[in-house]
């Protein structure tokens, strides 16, 4: 395999990972929209984003949980996670 072919394979691999990640996020959002437990779904998505090292999006989702559902158990979890993301 030449250097050019190697770089093309690497690019394809990175692109595929990105599309898989985007697909997983879209799936999570669609699933959340169909569910009756929005705080739980948002928390699961935030935790997924955090595991994927997408800290900015995880932080945004945790903040959204706290803002929209402040008295929920998920908001308590989000409050605990937020300091570690700053």
Determine Rg (CA atoms, Å): 17 Å
Biggest sheet descriptor = none
Query: How many structural domains are formed by the residues?
Result: 1
Count of strand segments: 0
Helix content: over 70%
Which structural class should the secondary elements be placed in?
mainly alpha
The DSSP helix count reads 4
Report on this model:
The protein has one domain. The longest helix has 32 residues. It is built from 4 helices and no strands. Helices cover 85% and strands 0% of the residues. The termini are far apart. α2 packs antiparallel against α3. The protein is an all-alpha fold.
Summarize the structure.
By secondary structure, the protein is mainly alpha-helical. It has helices spanning 3-34, 38-51, 55-68, 73-85.
What are the key terms here?
86 residues, mainly alpha
Please describe the topology of this protein.
Layout (H helix, E strand, L loop, with lengths): L2 H32 L3 H14 L3 H14 L4 H13 L1
Helix pairs in contact: 1-2, 2-3, 3-4
